[in-house]
Predict the structure.
Amino acid sequence: MELVDKFARIIINKTKQGYKVIVNSTAGFKAEAAYITIMAMMAGAWRIVYKHEGFNEVVSLLSLPLAMDEKYMRELRKIGKGMQKQAAEGIGINVDELKEKGLVDFEDGFVKPREWVTHLLRLTRNKLPSKAANQ
């Protein structure tokens, strides 16, 4: 998870500085490449590229808009910058589930959203849900 945080942090920071971040998801095992691609999309990478082993062309992958389950988004917004685990559980937040999903850090009885999750929450703060999501 530390690697995911670092990876997302670099993309987020460079994007804020005005760079168009391109992520090459070619290296590694297939599962790693898929994970890197998803994280790049969620962190706001401008483009994701991939080179298939069977040919020498670089393919640009479409950066799809991905979203987190609204249940988790609501819980994470309640946590804000962080709170005591006991307080979070007291208001109905399943901290263990959020931890299992890799969405929060938990240390010394204190739970807080991971860095990339905080960024995602900021990006989606003013977005209205789609009509389809409300039906």
Remarks:
- The beta strands are 22-24, 47-51, 58-61, 83-84, 104-107, 110-113.
- The radius of gyration is 17 Å.
